[in-house]
Amino acid sequence: MSGTDQTRCGVVAVIGAPNAGKSTLVNQLVGQKVAITSAKAQTTRARLLGIALESETQMILVDTPGIFAPRRRLDRAMVSAAWEGAVAADAVLLVVDPVKQRRHELMPLLDQLKHRSERKILVLNKVDVSKKEPLLELAQELGQAVDFAEVFFVSALTGDGVPELKTALSALMPEGPWHYPEDQVSDASERLLASEVTREQVYRQLHEELPYDAAVRPESYEQREDGSVEIRQQIVIARASQKPIVLGKNGRRIKEIGEAARKELSDMLGQKVHLFLHVKVDENWAESREIYEEIGLDWVR
Ligand SMILES: Nc1nc2c(ncn2[C@@H]2O[C@H](COP(=O)(O)OP(=O)(O)OP(=O)(O)O)[C@@H](O)[C@H]2O)c(=O)[nH]1
Fold first, then answer.
1. C-beta separation of 258 from 232 below 8 A
2. Does 18 carry a binding-site annotation?
3. Helix, strand, coil % in the chain, rounded to nearest 5
4. What percent of the chain has pLDDT over 70?
5. For residue 114, how many other CB atoms are within 10 A of its CB?
6. CATH topology for 8-172?
């Protein structure tokens, strides 16, 4: 099925402070891993779409980067991408971590939400690790600031409460034909997804030593005749002094990063993966338009 008169289709913008659990929630709604999750804040650099289906309804989920005070060009691009996602939405989901609320980042979002015309839904996430009473108080407080159409208490991690949220969301979508074929869960190219997987490993394995100045660029992505795929990527760092960190002793670190990413990619793609990683030093990468476009961001001034 791909769109008749009874179908519905709409865009859902997912916003929230960094680490609120947006990517995890998108994955739950879609039912498989499409966006990258990480324990470290602000890692969702590229804007990935997840597509969730609920009977006759297709929901295009815009998984936005964490929003924070923009200083550098890269940060401004992320903020712009985040809000761009919310421009044409049929619903906006505000995801809040009730324990680590990050109020300095949450409050500006609430202020902006007040002036938006979309239906707004408040999602208090991580109920598996929060107490009930403060949750209700928080829902009430946030509800006084913004006119939320509904409030949901969920755990994106365990999936608790997510089916109810999904049903409510689908009812908010306008009637119309589906934008994507039924079997398509993400329109992010596999190349880009593959780079995201590696980038997640870079952060996961080096988060203590390496600041945010690293990107993973897709170099090539080729299907081999034997049914496997050959992927080449560049890990771009800003300073030569970071190179030994990424490589590790005798190249051990980059080998581990590559091995973990390769395994995950192989699971995701359902085929054997040959992954080749190179480290490149580019002091100005955060100012490079080419790299921006490759990692799925718009160039902003
Ligand atoms: N206990 C618990 N942890 C969760 C839940 N949802 C997400 N997390 C964890 O919270 C952390 C952040 O989750 P993400 O989904 O990456 O958060 P995000 O909002 O996309 O983060 P940014 O990319 O920084 O904007 C990860 O370690 C998740 O495993 C939940 O319902 N319960």
1. no
2. yes
3. 40, 25, 40
4. 74
5. 11
6. Rossmann fold (3.40.50)
126 annotated to a ligand binding site: yes
Angle at 199 between CA 51 and CA 73, to 5 degrees: 90
Q: Say what the ipTM of the complex is.
A: 0.98
Architecture of the CATH domain 190-294: 2-Layer Sandwich (3.30)
DSSP string, 162-177: HHHHHHHHHHHSPB--
Closest CA to 216 of 257, 252, 271, 245: 257
**Chain segment 41-66, per-residue pLDDT in tens:** 333 433 555 778 888 898 878 765 44
**Cα 36-38-44 angle, rounded to 5 deg:** 50
Residue 63 labelled as part of a binding site = yes
Domain extents for the chain?
A: 8-172, 190-294
Name residues contacting ligand 1 (CB within 6 A): 16, 18-24, 37-39, 41-44, 65-66, 125-126, 128-129, 155-157
* Rounded CA separation 134/275 (Å): 47
**Interior/surface letters 133-152, b for 16+ CB within 10 angstroms, e for the rest:** eebeebbeebeeebebebbb
Other beta carbons less than 10 A from residue 222's beta carbon: 10
